[in-house]
Amino acid sequence: MRKIILLLLFSYFIISARAGEFSLPYLLADNPDFSVLTKNYDLKTIDELEVLDERVIEYSYDKDGALFEYFYLHIVKYVNSEEAIDRNNKIYVSFNRVMELVAYNARVISDGKGIKLLGKDALKEGTNSEGQKVQFFAVSGAEKGSFIEYFYLVKRSATVSGSYLTFQAKMPTLKSVFKIISPENLVFVTRSLNGYANMINDTTLSERNYLKAETMNIPKLDNESFGNEGGNKMKVIYQLYLNKSKGKKNPYNYGIVSQNIFESIHTTLNKTETKEIEKILKNSEMKLARDEENKIFKIEDYVKTHFEYVQNSDERFEKLEDIFKLKSYNSLGAIKLMYLLYEAAGIEKEIVVTSSRYEIRFDADFDSWAYLDEYLLYFPSIKKIMMPGATTYRLGVIPYGYIENNGLFIKKISVGNINTGAGKVNFIPAYPAEHTQHNMYITSKLNAMMDSLDVSYRQVYTGYYAQAIQPDFDFLAKDKLKEFEERIVKTLSDNINIKSIQIENKGVSNLMINPLILNSTFSSSHFINKAGTKVLLKFGDLIGPQSELYQEKDRVLPVENDYNRIYNREIIFMVPDGYKIKNSAELKMQIQPFLANGDGAGFVSTYTLQDNKLEVKIKEYYNQLNFPKSEYEKYRSVINAAANFNKIVLVLEKL
Hints:
Distance between the termini: 72 Å
CATH class of the largest domain: Mainly Beta
Number of helices: 13
Shape: globular
CATH architecture of the largest domain: Sandwich
CATH topology of the largest domain: Immunoglobulin-like
Number of strands: 36
Radius of gyration: 30 Å
Oligomer: single chain
Mean pLDDT: 92
Number of domains: 3
């Protein structure tokens, strides 16, 4: 959805009524011909193509001198299957920041049937899956081999501090065009990412600044396992660099931004607010903390268990007075409350503002508000980071989209009696693999009938693995807890007869303080098959189902993990008297393809067999997040090692 095309039925009225406001003629072609763009494609073999994606942002002043922008979106799609037609029978219109819908329409172009104009009635109103009101084009009349062409032009509030657009989809785009037009006094700067063409100056418009880029044959980008689709899509960041009429150059640099952010968070407290802050600190029992890190944790834990995070831009959730009354805050309210609490507690901290690497990576060499999306807190004395607004996270673990990324770190500085913020871009590293572990300790033996396996099963979760489960115990209804606990154990197999479950360190208040530990016992016939006098033991199934990476197509994306991690597994099996293991050598595996280059990932299993006790130790580890595409096959061999171990069946023969 991205360009603007004025339907023949409407074009004269709209353009004449608004003559002079647009710098470019937004007209649909009388006789559309897309063959120049599609000539290198065999359209009969293609399901769906984005033939044209054109977007224009034009800034202008209204009669009162207020700045606004027009956004023009023009899309042409080729559809050649019933599924593709269904995917495009509703084309949603974005009304974010929109003040007025200026023009719109859509048409279907088919061989032999010519052009079908959908008319002004094509725009419908409805509700989406979240119950929100939406508007969309209802496309009818498309058939296999048709082109669907639509546009809309909206007038909306202007953004100049830093935004970005994404230009890559799950289908190829044959031609992408992006233009920025602005009054002569407003100079914009842009940054193209991931292969999109750089925007260049065009001097064909008098008294206007005109930037444009054209990128041909953008390949489709599908999501791949262990690949960051969103972070690798083509994008363009744009923002105001110079207002000639005011002489302001680079008004959104990080020096100014850091001061503004700091001053919006570090507010002066009145008497009522001071008392509330002191009450929270007292109730948090921070004075009983064993050290500064524990003090930080106690304050965070108290706030997050007594205040609710809401996704709402209402100012009431940002003002301290209302936050204390409502016991609720949004992202800005959370960072403000937390910062002031740690300030009152005398704890050094820094405000961090960053982006998710799954959306847009924070570029250290280009100052832009486009990266300033989420607030974090950094504590220099312990070198740990926290996300104030994340209820189910605690000090030392933040959502993994914000690790392995840059951030703007804002430190308090004092000049005389004046406090302000000074910002510097620093890297937010990924946690080491030891931070996040799922460890298994299993003792097993056959029952007297040799048709079932009795298992003692201990699991220990830390880091992100703990975060995914530990908080749930605080929020699940009591009648759902047993089912939840059993589901964790049954990740090994549904065919399990659970005898007991004991869980230690439930709840988010234990996160990053105590590991989540699950002790269970069960019996199961799932692991046992018989073949005459032989017993077949599905030993590999004791580590649970494992993902297996297949690669039927050429890899497109480099490898990017969510987080580093370790799996330690120790399995003891008591061989029954009168039996021996025929193929124990299969248990020994060593896949370490990166040993010569930092040992980024590996899978190693060893075993000992003494008397009737088989003891197997497995270590699977991922010590780095990113691997180049050229090393994908090596990485895949590590992932598949666990899947291969999972397939091991031990053969027990009579002596």
